[in-house]
Amino acid sequence: MGKAIRRIIFFVALIVFIGSAGYLAQHYFKGKAEQNDFESLKVDGKYDVAQLHEKNGDIVGWLTIEGTKVDYPVMQTKENPEYYLRRNFKKEDTMAGTPFMDATSDMETPSANWMIYGHNMKNGTMFHDTLDYEDKEFYEKHKTFTFETLTEKGTYEVVAAYYTEIYTEDSKKFKYYQYPSIINEIQYNDFIQGSKSLCPYDTGVTPVYPEQLVTLSTCAYHVEDGRFVVVGRKISSEPTQGAASEETPQE
């Protein structure tokens, strides 16, 4: 009887192991395929925001953090803010989705903060690598990132990076997510002060209104409804090829 029970336990454990391995393999290959979809948007390893805009008018830019997997298009759909939460650039259903900008972060009417959301995928894609900014040593090696729009390629230096959470409505805690569009100096200073107060190290960077900010937001699991945030300010920009050609007089 004991031998039979052990045999049953063994086969049950084997079935569970095979099922788990199959699920992990499926998850891995699905994530790999989703990542390849983004790579396919490049030509000779490079992206062209203007050309991509012709294919999908929802794209507003391309975000890159050198030395990480963060190298993605950024979408925006003001009428349906979370449209790309579970869709790829081709508007197909995917778990990873595509990074997207908050619907109230207006790039046409001046807004001193553009807030971009991305998933924290267990396979290390999307905004997973932004959590490495918790470590000052990582920050020291990745002080800047780029965000290229239809008109310019901007370089942003990291102002602050921190863990936080979505608080209850009556909480007096600093709520970064209430600042996706900053239109005055008071809001700007409140956002910078709150962000820097939560950063575990001092970057020595304090933006001055109206210097353009880009804020990256992703889920974190240190608490329920946890978030990890990276704030950067623009320190330089150059026209994109399309914008430059439009400005060049015809001979």
Characterize the structure shown.
With 251 residues, this protein is α+β, with helices and mostly antiparallel strands. It has 2 domains: 1-40; 49-247, Sortase (Sortase, Chain: A, Beta Barrel). Helices cover 29% and strands 24% of the residues. It is built from 5 helices and 8 strands. The chain has helices at residues 2-39, 49-55, 136-141, 185-198, 241-247, and strands spanning 59-64, 71-75, 100-101, 113-117, 144-148, 152-165, 213-220, 226-239. Strands 2-1-5-6-8-7-4-3 form an 8-stranded mixed β-sheet. Strand 1 and strand 2 form a beta hairpin. The longest helix is centred in the first third of the chain and has 38 residues, at 2-39. The radius of gyration is 21 Å and the shape is globular. Residues 21-29 and 244-251 have low confidence and may be disordered.
CATH superfamily annotation of the largest domain: Sortase
Uncertain segments of ≥5 residues (pLDDT<50)?
A: 21-29, 244-251
Strand order of the largest sheet: 2-1-5-6-8-7-4-3
Q: What would CATH call the architecture of the largest domain? A: Beta Barrel
Strand proportion, as a percent range, falls in 15-25%
CATH top level class name of the largest domain: Mainly Beta
- Helix count from the secondary structure assignment: 5
User: Helicity, in percent?
Assistant: 25-40%
Write the layout of secondary structure elements.
Layout: H1 2-39, H2 49-55, E1 59-64, E2 71-75, E3 100-101, E4 113-117, H3 136-141, E5 144-148, E6 152-165, H4 185-198, E7 213-220, E8 226-239, H5 241-247
Parallel strand pairs: 4-7
Antiparallel strand pairs: 1-2, 1-5, 3-4, 5-6, 6-8, 7-8
